[in-house]
Give the backbone structure.
Amino acid sequence: MLDSDCPELPLSTQSKLLSVSRSGLYYRAVLPSPEEISLRHRIDEITTRWPFFGSRRIAASLKREGLIVGRERVQTFMREMGIEGIHPGPNLSKRALSHKVYPYLLRNITAQYPHHIWGVDITYIRLAHGLMYLVAIIDWHSRYVVSWELDQTLEMPFVLDYVDRAFSTALPAIFNSDQGSRFTSNSYIERLLSRNIQISMDGKGRAIESLPFFQRSPFFLLIIRDIFWS
């Protein structure tokens, strides 16, 4: 709604009329440097090979490679990339405390037919000149990727859009996720309950359940490779 070329109304007046901050009109996003992208990629490679490494061991590995990086910077990148070393303990998949958590329904259960059980998770994908978040839904019986989406952020509309797209093709009997805040949010839960879908969530505080579904399924990694590197 702003017109920077309007001779009658300067930007200061336009921003006041629209009740927006004038300082925000001049903000320009700064892309990460090639050095930062390379460092993020290397952190992800180390985590992929040794998923039990935390920030301390990753920083030590980088130093042995000649990259002098402090642990605090490694922690910041890992937090922004949404990755964490696997370890038993609390808060492995953080949720909003006000959100309801559903029990894990898949213990000793095997998917018997297509669309019996769907699994959903979010992971980080390295790209040549940056990074993206990948969210995908997989059918546990056929290993078919029902829906997937890439985005630079993890905002709720990004998550809900691909769920709606998946539901336009079929509906599962059981939908499994972790206890992340996006999967315990009211807008997400209401979409499942309104379609009579049973909700299953991975248990809290167990290392094997905190591991992203993509890493628990080697076949799924092949699918991801085919999508992005074919």
DSSP finds ten helices and five strands in the chain. The mean pLDDT is 78. The chain has two domains: 34-81, 117-229.
